[in-house]
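User: Predict the structure for this protein chain, please.
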Amino acid sequence: MDTLTRIRAFIDVVEAEGFSAAARKVGRSKALLSKYVRELEDDLGALLLNRTTRQFSLTEAGHTYYRTASDILKEIDNLADLVREGSKDLKGRIRVSAPRTFADAAIGRSLIDFAAAHPDVTLEIISDDRFVDLVEEGYDVAIRITRLEDSGLIARKLSAFSLIACASPEYLERHGPITHPSQLAGLPCIVDTNGRTLNNWPFENKDGSVFSVSVHGRLEVNSPLTAMRAAEAGLGVAVLPDFVFKERQDQGKLVPILSDYLQTDRGIYAIYPHRRYLPAKVRAFVDFLSQWFKTNA
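Assistant: Here is the predicted structure, written as structure tokens:
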């Protein structure tokens, strides 16, 4: 019996959380899957699964074996995918984490355009503003709008990105011109709680030195789109992603301010785990997004 077949049976059972569910999912009998797992345990000389009529759980050895075996099978499947990509269309599922701001804005069209261009690929988009753990949570790619930090992940820059401080013309008429970030400490501001700095807004002098201003206001939100609408209503100064601000720029409801003090070392990145054999579908997805942003700059 092929060892890989036994390993796949074990992983199918673990991910389905039971033999019966795994049998339904993969189209094999429960008895056959049980036989494969039992033979795998015999070969290893270790119990991988605790089995009772009502409970199913991994042993400590089972946890260790599952993590490593899953990675090995992914590499094998990815290698096969890499070899086949020249002769077959892309197929399969790509699980993507993207900030809600990205998915809801005009640039989220890039994801829709990829799905339209590859009808045999299932694109699972999870809109989540937190930084997910790609490996632990089973994501293929994450879109991140950030200053890039060192990590064990691979990053591909899709586009430059900047923040824009802005306020409504009516707000500026009431409070006067804002020429330095320090003025914000005494003015109503709209705090986007998605940001890592919360109400301590970072700025940068022309000499490169960085400083922060503690801001406050009556409105705290976890959505740049809501912050934008609040700023348009004159409730305070907002700091918005440039692609959100530019969607409404022509309407004249918001005026950019403090442009000489905002940091510019950020970008929109596609992040994916380091793998020796990157799946062709994932590479095609990242390549598509990179070209999309160049075309739609």
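The mean pLDDT is 85.
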